[in-house]
Amino acid sequence: MKSSLSRQRIEAAGKKGKDLSICVVGAGNGGLAMAGHLGVLGFDVRLFNRTDAALSGVRWHGGVHMSGAVHGFGPVALATSDISLALRGADLVMIVTPATAHAELARCMAPYLEDGQVVVLNPGRTGGALEFRRALGLAGARGEPVIAEAQTLLYASRAISRHEARIFKIKNGVPVAALPSYWTPEVLNLLDSAFPQFIAGSNVLATSLENIGAVFHPALTILNAGWIEATRGDFDYYLQGITPSVAIFLEKVDEDRMAVARRLGVRSSTAREWLYLSYDAPGDTLYEAIHNTAAYRGIKAPQSIAHRYISEDVPMSLVPISSIGAMLGVPTPSIDMVIELGSILHGVDYRAVGRTVERLGLEGMSVEDIHRLAMDPDS
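Predicted structure:
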C-alpha cells in the first residue's frame, strides 16, 4: 500500500487547480497537442523528450501554437531532454509516447520519481500500467509514484510542425484506471481541473482490453499496404481505407479482443459502441459507424507501412491480447493473423519483443490472480 505521505501529496495536488505542475513526456503528435492544450488552459507545463532536437521549435517560440478544437498559444515553461529536471516537483506526469517506450521510460524515471507523483500513460495500450510498474520495480525505484493508464489518447490530433499542433477532436469520455484500482478516484480528482473528459475505469484490465487502437490500426494499415505504398498515404485513412470488406475483418479482430475480455470477466464495449460513446458516431455496422465519425475526416494514412500502427500496436496491443488468450485457453485467430503479417512485413518477430504474459508479470496466473493483481499488486 502507498505510504501516507503519498496519499497526502496526491490529495494536496488535487486541490491546486491551475497551480498544478504538469510534466508532459513526449513531443510527438499527442504530446505536443497535450502540452499546448495545457498551456492554453493556463497550467504550468514542462515538456520532456528524449531527443533534444525535437524540442527546438517549442523552445524558440516558448510554447505550442494550437489550432482546431483548441485554439491559441500554449506557453511551455520548460522544454528539456533532462528527465531529472522535467520530473522534479511535478504533481502529474502525462506520458504521451508510443507504448514501445514505456518500459525504457520507466527505467529512466526510476531514480527520480517521487512519492505520490501521479504518472498516467496516454494511452497504456494493452498492459501498459502492468509493464511500467514491473519495469520500475526491476530498476529499483525508490519513490512510490501512482501509476495509471488511459484507455485511449484523449485527442484525435496531429503535429503540424515542431511548435504547432492541431486537435481535430477531443473525445467525449476516456476511462482512466490506477494500479492499484483503489487509487482511481484520487487520480481522477487530480486530472479533473485539466481534463474533465477523463472518467473512471473499473481497473487496468478494463482500460487495457478496451484498446480500440488494437482493432483499427495494425489490420487497417496491413490491408491498405498497397495503397499506402502507391500514394505515400495520400488518402483518408479511416474513411477511404475502411471499405465494407475491410470493416468485416476489423470486426473479426474486435471479436477476438472481446472474447479475451469476457474470459477475464471484463465488460468491454465493441469497437462500434466505442465510436458512439467517444464521437457520437451512430451505425448499425462498424463500417457505418466509422463513416459517421466526423473526427476522422481529413486524417491521412501513414506515408509508409514502417509506422507505429504496426511497430507499436502489434507488439504492445495485439501480442498481449493473444498471449493472455493463449494462457487462458481463448483462441484469437484473426489477431494472430495480423501479428504474423505484421512480423513478416517488418521483418521483426513481434511475439519475441512484445508484451507477453511473462513481460507483464502474469505468467501462470488464474483469472482470479490477475484481478487480485489489478486491485492491489502489493497484497
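Summary: The radius of gyration is 20 Å.
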